[in-house]
Amino acid sequence: MTTILVTGGTGTLGRLVTERLRADGHEVRVLSRHAQPYAVDLREGGAGLDAALAGVATVVHCASSPRGGDEQAAQHLLAAARRAGVGHLAYISIVGVDRVPFGYYRSKLAVERLIEQSGLGWTVLRATQFHDLLAMFFQGLSRPPVMLVPAGVPDQPVEVAEVAGRLAELAAGAPAGRVPDMGGPEVRSFDSLARAYLRATGRRRAVANVPLLGKTYRAFRTGGHLAPDQAVGKGTFEEYLTRRFGQG
């Protein structure tokens, strides 16, 4: 089996990708800012990155931050991967990065383009939002007595373990370029997802749908972040909520 480096290997997705690859018999190195022996901040690069990549055949790039720095991190990673002779880099991106003018999405699209132009063998998988992300979002929105959600916005959340399985499968194979998107099983309104979260957590809140302004909101409202033709995920949001909170 090959030696595979997973960046962001302690995160929500990266941890599951690491577990899947190890279960399949691969030697896996986990790279993150605090995970020894490969504690590296990709935004800074440095000798630690070269050491982490020595002898690595494949990189699964899961490290990402909405707070910025993804492009700089990718440049450091790609340069080090070329020096190390890495044959395959698999990257997780987001459905709609080329359609929704949201800052974080634009950064993810820029990283995709850096990877495509890197000279390395590459695979890019775009997925819709994870159930975990929606739960975190709704946790914040449900703090006030009235839960305000963006009006008219649909979503298609997907189970992170399913994305991890698909990404691990792709990483173990040959470079495949841009592969079909991966979406959750249902396209739902934010309103219905928010109400499902409230039921599962036992919180009593009024839900108000608030119209917003701007190109980003319009793109989300018209479904630029959805993949209805690739609704390949199986786990529903209610099933995730039941598993996490004990009731649906």
UniProtKB/TrEMBL annotation:
Residues 8-132 form the NAD(P)-binding domain. InterPro entries: Ergot_Alk_Oxidoreductase (IPR051604), NAD(P)-bd_dom (IPR016040), NAD(P)-bd_dom_sf (IPR036291). PANTHER family: PRESTALK A DIFFERENTIATION PROTEIN A, PTHR43162. This is Nucleoside-diphosphate sugar epimerase.
